[in-house]
Amino acid sequence: MLTLMEPALWTEKYRPKTLGEIIDQEEIVSRLQEFVKRAAMPHCLFAGPPGTGKTTAALCLAHDLFGVRFQDVFMELNASDERGIDVVRTTVKEFARMASLSSVPFKILVLDEADNMTSDAQSALRRTMEKYTDTCRFVLCCNYSGRIIEPIQSRCALFRFTPLPDEKIVENLHRIAKNEGLKFTETGLKSIVEVAEGDLRKSINTLQAASSMSKGITEESVYQVVGRAKPTDVHEMLNHALKGDFIKAREELRHLLVRYGLSGSEIVRQIHSEIFRLAIPEKKRIDLVEAVGEIDFRLVQGGDEEVQLSALLAKLASEAYPGRKT
Amino acid sequence: MTVEPWTVKYRPGTSRDVAGNKTAIEKLREWIDSWSEGRPTKRAALLYGPAGVGKTTVSEALAQERGWDLVEINASDKRSGEILSKIAGLASTQSTLFSKGRLILLDEVDGVNLREDHGAITTILQIIKDTQYPLVLTANDPWDPKIRPLREACLQIELKRLGVRDGLPLLKSILSKEGVKTTDDALRFIIDKDRGDIRSILNDIQLLSGRNRTLTMDDVNLLSGRDRTESVFEVLRVIFNSRTVAAARRALSISDLDQEMLFQWIFENAPYQIPKPDELERAISALADADMYFARIRKTQSWHLLSYALDLMTAGVAVAKQTPTSGWVPMKFPQRISSMSRTRMSRDLRKRVGVAIGQKSHVSARRAQQLYLPLIRFAYEHSPEKFEQIAVWLEAKDELNEMLSAELK
User: Fold this and answer.
1) pLDDT by residue (tens digit) across B271-284?
2) What's the pLDDT score for residue A1?
3) Which of A80, A119, A317 comes nearest B364 by C-beta?
4) What does the pLDDT read at residue B148?
5) Residues B386, A211: C-beta atoms closer than 8 Å
6) Stretch A250-266: mean pLDDT
7) What is the largest CA-CA distance in chain B?
8) Chain A: nearest CA to B230, how far in angstroms?
9) B139, β-bridge pairs
10) CATH of domain A166-226
11) Contact assignment for B272 to A59 by CB distance below 8 Å
12) CB–CB contact A201 B371 (8 Å)
């Protein structure tokens, strides 16, 4: 599909086209450029937190290898949308088995969010990877390499992407802000960097959201963007629980999840930092840290956000209960 | 925040207000009135019919409208011959204060336990023989061999299930008093589903209309399952009142709600049904554990794990609750299910929006929603032209407009 419009989302507009444009991750970039020079590469596993350039690196690699028109020899699948063995059996296989017609003797298939594939689908993928090694290279992107089955890991060159340093993020924000002709203050940009925590995409999204306010990029507008879920709401939820009112606390939780669209892990993170501000005995803080950690783990395992967080609230409410047996 | 159950609020004041069974009630009334001309040949009436058709209610109403005392012994009382003759026997022969009339009601006689309620049937026969006051027995199953000796001695009156013909006007008048808008098809459906059991019907309509003061097929469909064997209400009641693991697990056998749906019902109601915080903590923790099994099942399709999830969410909750609730606490409709159905359309919409964003931003539809919707929402609220730009580029302008305008309402 060809769109002549320039991308309206800045994350797309400013996405690097070539490996050379990639910000930070120097070591990874130089290794990938080596592949381009030799026109040869192994299967790759790109692992790292969101917004650190995994997909971008894969796209740039394909671009540098195949040139501008790389559509025929390049395919990007998102494992979360199209997971399951069926996709591996049909789409992936179809693509992988046809030999490349370009000057580079292989095709590239990028599987995004590969750690969301079931282990069965991963096993099926592993056989496909082996069978079509001559014609196709796989690039698997994931947040946690540990969630990729051993046999696939051992067939891939592993690249670990790390959160971007603050100064690189601020540099990039400057560049975009100038280019877009934005009104901004340094403290405004600095507060974006703070919330982004090394996630470049998040920093750009926050910048774009804040830019839709007439006052421009200030500390205040940034706070308004990220402050949709104000820390006070999590605070309030915890206070209801600590007063023993589970029902109110759960209501507040639903608010955060539904109205503010916060993810469970974001709430967990906020609770974690709130723990040290709550008026509770020191020993309780550590108990809570453990409980919060357990829930974080459960969410990663696919637990339901509302149910799991409710368990924590019920625990707090019960602690508050004076008639409690100890 | 106590809400009166409609089964209590709309209990008929007189026997003429009872819906349906006109002939049967008339027969009973005539028999009771015949006592004023001396003891009739049949000194007891056996009212029989399925649960919830109004056997007890009719008897109570008849006594009340005559200003009579009602002496009632029901299944929850112990009924050995000795106890029966003490209470019912005395009541049936001694005269009342101010020589008021008296009606003696022996509820659920087919529930008599031959071993524990030793000598009960013989005693009842004796009471029938001696009684100076009308004696009403009730039973679900009149053909139970245990009570065969009683059948002969009684005037037999059958009460039938509430049909649509009598049910519709009754339910409509109740709902209009409650200010709930309803449709015939929804009421027909409920009457049919609860097989004419008025108690279940009233519980269900109270529950279902509590959400948004309407009772239409949309609300009814949330109950799911055309041939559910028991109302959700009943299933929840079993779970929250069972003391043993076995009893709580039995709730599953009477429910054919989808398991995850049932989970939502239990999760929603737990804090209301389990007021003690430490017990609630254990209950919610059992539910959270059950949730993890559901997650594993979804992820690995290991359906053999289901039984652990089910045990935890029923028995786990039941044994966590040790203090019985005092009074009647109404069941709540799960917010998750109601918001799911209310926003079923908007969820489809969200998904389409997610796919549109995902296609342009190299992330999955789900991640796309998380990553980009906050930004787009913000633009929508603060800068219409910037929003427009993004929406057009995403080729999802109509969808985004529809979704965000609905959200802001």
Assistant:
1) 999 999 999 999 99
2) 46
3) A80
4) 84
5) yes
6) 80
7) 92
8) 26
9) B48
10) 1.10.8.60
11) no
12) yes
B367 touches chain A (CB under 8 A): yes
Q: What's the Cα-to-Cα distance from A37 to each of A31, A40, A66, A247, B218, rounded to whole Å? A: 10, 8, 12, 62, 63
Q: Where do the structural domains in chain B lie, given as residue ranges?
A: 21-158, 164-221, 232-342, 344-408
A231-318 CATH, one of 1.20.272.10, 1.10.3720.10, 3.40.720.10, 3.40.30.10: 1.20.272.10
CATH of domain B21-158: 3.40.50.300
Smallest CA-to-CA distance from A144 within A117, A120, A110 is with A117
Residues 6 or more apart from B355 whose CB is under 8 A from it?
A: A81, B365, B368
Phi-psi region at A213: left, alpha or beta (left = phi > 0; alpha = psi -120 to 50): beta
State how far the Cα of B45 lies from the Cα of B39, in Å rounded to an integer.
13
Q: Percent of chain A at pLDDT above 70?
A: 93
pLDDT average, residue stretch B92-105:
74
Q: What is the ipTM of this complex?
A: 0.70
Assess contact for B131 and B35: CB atoms under 8 A.
no
Q: Among partner residues A112, A119, A301, which is closest to B292 by beta-carbon distance?
A: A301
Render pLDDT for B346-394 as a digit per residue (tens, 0 to 9): 667 777 888 899 888 888 887 888 788 888 988 998 888 999 999 999 9
Q: Is the pLDDT of residue A287 over 50?
A: yes
Confidence of residue B233 (pLDDT cuts 50, 70, 90): confident
Flag whether the pTM goes above 0.90.
no
Closest CA to B305 of B243, B369, B259, B373: B259
Q: Which two tokens stand for residue B158?
A: 């059958």
Query: Is the per-residue pLDDT at B243 higher than 70?
Result: yes
pLDDT mean across residues, chain B: 82
Pick the CATH number of A10-160 from 3.40.50.720, 3.40.50.300, 1.25.40.10, 2.30.33.40: 3.40.50.300
Taking CB atoms and an 8 Å limit, are B386 and A258 in contact across chains?
A: no
Chain B residues 235-294 within an 8 A CB cutoff of chain A: 267, 271-272, 276-278, 280-281, 283-285, 287-288, 291-292, 294
Q: CB-based contact (8 Å) between B363 and chain A? A: yes
pLDDT at A18: 94
| Top-confidence residue, A28 or A274 | A28
Mean pLDDT of A189-217: 91
